[in-house]
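Quick start: read one record
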Amino acid sequence: MPASLPAAQPEEPSADVVVGADGLARPRWAATDPLLRSYYDTEWGLPVRDERGLFERLSLEAFQSGLSWATILRKRPAFRAAFADFDPDTVAGFGDADVERLLADAGIVRNRAKILATIGNAGATVALREDGGLPALVWSFRPDVTPQPRTIAEIPTTSPESRALSAALRARGFRFVGPTTMFALMEAVGIVDTHLVDSHRRGSSGVWS
């Protein structure tokens, strides 16, 4: 009789995953900073399907361009105060005085182009209600499959769907909505699941089994 084949050995956890003192596995970026860890555990990747919530996350992803997400997350309370809790109707009505107020607000990222884009995007969000609304448009680009990364290097930064979403939003007057920014948005609001397969959050959104 042929010798028995050796039993398959389980794969070692990715080096990009850190098991915390609580016994939960997280990616390295969410393993040490308490704010990032809380955001990862309770918010990132969970479905966001309401207009205000999506407008806020779209706006914050735009402000994050060129900066770290930790910087944006620490400034989020100030962003919410400065932008009327990201109510699209209110932000769409901001005028020159509001722009100057925002440029003088040290609590947020004082970038004129991004501030103007956020105000313009609020108007585009309001206008989009006549065509189904922002949530319907954004979620219509959910792919048929989601990545299954074991390492950070395996996580894509764009996808055909994020490029298509970017083009669709630009056609409707949105700015700072490039394919990379839109892929980050899709990750953040649960449209794709890029939690590492060894993470305790993998599959927790309910969108992907």
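Confidence is low (pLDDT under 50) at residues 1-10.
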